Amino acid sequence: MGVSLEYEAVVIGSGFGGAVMGARLSKKWPGRVALLERGKAYALGAFPRSPHDMADNVWCPDGDRMRRPRAVQRRKERRGHLDGLFDIRHFDRIDTVTSAALGGGSQIYANVFLRPPAAVFEQNWPCNVSRDALAPYYDVAQQVLGARPVPPAEGPHDRRYIRRTGHFQAFARAERLPTALADICVFFGNGYSDGSGPPTPLGVQETNRYGALQTSCTYCGECDIGCNVQAKNSLDRNYLHAAQARYRLAIRTGSEAVRIVPLDAQLQDDPDGDGRHGYRVVYRDVQSGVEHGVTARRVVLAAGTLGSTELLLRCRDVHATLPRISACLGQRFSGNGDFLAFALDGKREIDSTYGPVITQYADHRLFDRLDRSQAFLLQDASYPTQAGWAVAAVGPIMHPLAKLWQVLRYAFDRAYPGRKRNSAGYLMQKLFSHDVSRYSAVLLCMGLDTADGTLRLNRHGYLDIDWPQDSNRPLYNAIVRLGKRFTRFIGGRRYLPMPNWLWPINNNVTVHPLGGCALADSPQLGVVSARDGSRGQVFGYQGLYVADGSLMPTALGANPAATITALSEWIAHEMTGNVPDADL
Ligand SMILES: Cc1cc2nc3c(=O)[nH]c(=O)nc-3n(C[C@H](O)[C@H](O)[C@H](O)COP(=O)(O)OP(=O)(O)OC[C@H]3O[C@@H](n4cnc5c(N)ncnc54)[C@H](O)[C@@H]3O)c2cc1C
């Protein structure tokens, strides 16, 4: 009896690239496509919230623990198993935060959908990839992801009123920087999504156009820790939902791909093969640790910048199953110029715990009057109320003498019972009256860094990053200067960069890692082909594709999910021959 391949395609990873591929390929080959995702699926209300559960909510695999923060490693030793949402890694000079979940980064991202300026594609990109060439794919992606600006508010008493947006825009105008509301992938009701009507009242549930249940955004500010009311247009509400419900995409969560091996004509492993007979993907059941294999004619790597590059590096250099991959693998790593900072304790009411995470951006020489040495965006951010409480606890550090005086007075009042200051009302006022979050702002910046980092394997065979921070100093210095001016603008007491940036750690933190499997016109310039006829294919192999952030040959300056989605649509179009549309 002849043996045959199990699937037409296996997709590894379910972030923006993987979700597009899962949807488009399963539509082409219904019931013949599988998707492997190492993380879990999260149902309505399933994202952790208690301090204990949040401490467990990190990803720490058995093999590669060297680059996990020590506190995470210690917790893993105590708890035995950590397969949570946040994959946090600490490299020399740069830290990374990514996601492990069905839907990838869409479960914790800040929802912004932004096309970079055309000029970004004019330097170090393959000749046939431009913003114009990608325009139809951006359009489809924007419709599927439901990206629109936050709905207008009637005034300060309207629950849709987000205080910080106005302050950020006023600052941009004072600095003569262009500013705009960001398109965000958040559900405000079907009518608002398709432009046919006003937003649905906060908290009301509707079935979206793909048949998934969603809630009109409640403005809780919890976008970055997983939306428990399903108001984010995360990928499990659109691309992945349609693929599974309509085209029988076989989604296997808790399945971490560990090896890709080409097959020969008898479907035996053939490390010297070029993929023409298909591949075996070996994956590990995250719960049991047991390895399984699945065979397919095509494999699409969509495990994110770190995941895809690491898997290919290990297949080339540790397992020797994909030896033909270009020597450029791992090059052109970028943190997309990410820089996180805080303007603390100002005089304006910022109210940082309210509303969707990002609502606007100010353009510092990226779209307008491009200057590549200091091109970046300044975006506002909210954070969950739970974090607001934690920030309030920092208050005594900021006003130590006032707090000491308060404690002494409280002790005095306790000693003389019956005084009115012992009342619950007094306590509530003293505890809650100076909410630091109310008067402090998060400053999210990203821009055109030099994208000259390197992803490589360490001596244990797992991912490491060389990040040439110094070559990006002009960008970071410009970001810090603007952040300090913002702090003065709101009357803030202190500008505080992300603590990792300070001595002695001096690290950047990126939530937008890019590059490593760069798109290029030839294997001398990159890892993945941009040529028509082989879009998205790894040079040297047939039927082995990459579709995720690792494709970017440069920083984008803008938030990358829009471009990752558009490029994946562009690759899927050629793979399937089907013109993509937003109906899925
Ligand atoms: C806090 C935060 C806020 C952000 N805000 C924004 C924003 O507002 N706008 C924006 O554009 N971008 C934002 N981003 C970045 C955005 O989330 C990423 O750029 C995007 O998710 C990358 O998409 P991707 O397809 O490359 O990979 P990912 O979305 O990272 O998906 C990769 C998937 O592959 C899985 N995986 C990895 N290795 C394996 C393996 N071996 N086997 C099986 N599965 C595997 C992972 O678990 C993950 O689910 C944000 C990121 C963070 C962390």
Automatic annotation (TrEMBL):
<keyword id="KW-0753">Steroid metabolism</keyword>
<dbReference type="GO" id="GO:0016995">
    <property type="term" value="F:cholesterol oxidase activity"/>
</dbReference>
<dbReference type="Pfam" id="PF05199">
    <property type="entry name" value="GMC_oxred_C"/>
</dbReference>
<dbReference type="Pfam" id="PF00732">
    <property type="entry name" value="GMC_oxred_N"/>
</dbReference>
<dbReference type="GO" id="GO:0050660">
    <property type="term" value="F:flavin adenine dinucleotide binding"/>
</dbReference>
<keyword id="KW-0443">Lipid metabolism</keyword>
<keyword id="KW-0274">FAD</keyword>
<protein>
    <recommendedName>
        <fullName>Cholesterol oxidase</fullName>
        <ecNumber>1.1.3.6</ecNumber>
        <ecNumber>5.3.3.1</ecNumber>
    </recommendedName>
</protein>
<feature type="domain" description="Glucose-methanol-choline oxidoreductase C-terminal">
    <location>
        <begin position="510"/>
        <end position="567"/>
    </location>
</feature>
<keyword id="KW-0153">Cholesterol metabolism</keyword>
<keyword id="KW-0413">Isomerase</keyword>
<comment type="similarity">
    <text>Belongs to the GMC oxidoreductase family.</text>
</comment>
<comment type="pathway">
    <text>Steroid metabolism; cholesterol degradation.</text>
</comment>
<dbReference type="GO" id="GO:0004769">
    <property type="term" value="F:steroid Delta-isomerase activity"/>
</dbReference>
<dbReference type="GO" id="GO:0008203">
    <property type="term" value="P:cholesterol metabolic process"/>
</dbReference>
<keyword id="KW-1207">Sterol metabolism</keyword>
<keyword id="KW-0285">Flavoprotein</keyword>
<dbReference type="InterPro" id="IPR036188">
    <property type="entry name" value="FAD/NAD-bd_sf"/>
</dbReference>
<dbReference type="InterPro" id="IPR052542">
    <property type="entry name" value="Cholesterol_Oxidase"/>
</dbReference>
<dbReference type="InterPro" id="IPR000172">
    <property type="entry name" value="GMC_OxRdtase_N"/>
</dbReference>
<keyword id="KW-0560">Oxidoreductase</keyword>
<feature type="domain" description="Glucose-methanol-choline oxidoreductase N-terminal">
    <location>
        <begin position="215"/>
        <end position="314"/>
    </location>
</feature>
<dbReference type="InterPro" id="IPR007867">
    <property type="entry name" value="GMC_OxRtase_C"/>
</dbReference>
